[in-house]
Amino acid sequence: MQIIPLQPTHARAAARLHIAGQPGTFLTSLGPQVLTVFYESLPRAAVGLGFAAVDNTQMLGFVSATTSVGRLFVELGTRRAGLFLPPLLACFARQPSLMLRSLETLFYPMVAARQSHRQGHSGGSTAELLSIMVEPYARSHGVGAHLMAALTAECTRRQIELLDVTVDKANAGARRFYTRHGFSLMHDFTLYGRAMYQYQLALKPHEKFRPAI
Length: 213
What we know:
By secondary structure, the chain is an alpha+beta fold. 44% of the residues lie in helices and 25% in strands. The chain is globular, with a radius of gyration of 16 Å.
């Protein structure tokens, strides 16, 4: 297995894993076309980063993150609009109720920033972990741990001090994963009508990260 930078060529596999790993969530409900465009665009974005775990040509899992959720949305809505909007509008035509949830997504960066300020964490550069997915047959073999190690090492290289992640309160497995990898629970809030937890990892300068298997 190798851990390599996430590439646009991984987009279809990433979209498929995302849908399989988070059934019933808002992003999954947008469908494979929207998610494929998202994962094609993320590695090209100035604020996007991620890694893929591959075995020969098979992708076993991936992790994606951004140094600015707000700037990522702006880039998707401007530079990538020609690719992103057609499948998104088609999705809205099929399910108009998703438009309201899209507005919640656009306002999410402001909600997260306000909560962080209330918690007294207004200083320091921050990245947000967007997704980490592993093929079902490859789970419990350290793939997720190696992906997390690659991401935290890259964040440290970029002098990012904090790594945030939002987790559905009902997703006990994900909450255990982040706790095991040093994340601390910061606060809870509601998004898409669901209870969410925000976790945060404080990154130490020049720290060498090792997989927590």
